[in-house]
What we know:
Order of helices and strands: HEEEHEHEEH
Largest sheet: 6 strands, antiparallel
Number of helices: 4
Low-confidence stretches: 164-168
Strand content: 35-45%
Shape: globular
Helix content: 25-40%
Mean pLDDT: 90
Radius of gyration: 17 Å
Structural class: alpha+beta
Strand order of the largest sheet: 1-2-3-4-6-5
Amino acid sequence: xxxxxxxxxxxxxxxxxxxxxxxxxxxxxxxxxxxxxxxxxxxxxxxxxxxxxxxxxxxxxxxxxxxxxxxxxxxxxxxxxxxxxxxxxxxxxxxxxxxxxxxxxxxxxxxxxxxxxxxxxxxxxxxxxxxxxxxxxxxxxxxxxxxxxxxxxxxxxxxxxxxxxxxx
Length: 168
């Protein structure tokens, strides 16, 4: 019988929670990836959601288990394996000007214990210039099976930062 890892358990809970929000009409799931990187032995799950009003902004929620955590769990040498979480707010914009208010909210919400950064990308084609803004929160905490409520709170708070409501 297959014994699921902490990664599998967290992924299933978060995925189910977000799909429930989608079924309730609170968000739209617009993408997901379940990646096994055989070169680095990293597992990664990314789910992308957007506002049901089809705003220009989307949220990527990424759960990753590095090889040392995964191997420690499988070999039973790590008693409390965990995953890292990154939340990214992405938007395409016609200008390089970014949302200072969102960046301040992210820093106020999570910036003391976790890394908050902004990536600006300029895309130039023959016909247009587009800017892609990615506001990232890289959580510096390992999340285990005892942290499921914390992960649900991260999802809820991320959605609320976009002006949406997920209250259960």
